[in-house]
Protein: DsrE family protein
Organism: Pseudodesulfovibrio portus
Amino acid sequence: MHDIPASESLFIIWSSPDPEVADNLVFMYGHNSMKRDWWGRVRLIVWGPSAKLAATDEHIRKRLAEMEDDGVEIWACRACADNYGVTEELEKAGLNVFHVGQATTEMLKAGWKNLTF
């Protein structure tokens, strides 16, 4: 997977706490991007208010698990998770929770494509 060029790599910053935005935009595009080979690598970053939604909404956690099963990498911002008091819940849900700022900067500098919702 690491041989995939940055030009074929997409990361999506999901910050919206709105479940409609998650289901009918973020997850729809992110999941289909991987399943339909629109991108060689797709990474979803749970950042800001979306962390609370991901930790507390069972339907959202199920959708995240489905995406991960199909190859979407899912990260969650540790600072945000800590601020919302949901770090433990996100880790139990299997999300990779860490400080994502530097990694995001590296992806941008490397030429990854990105979307923010």
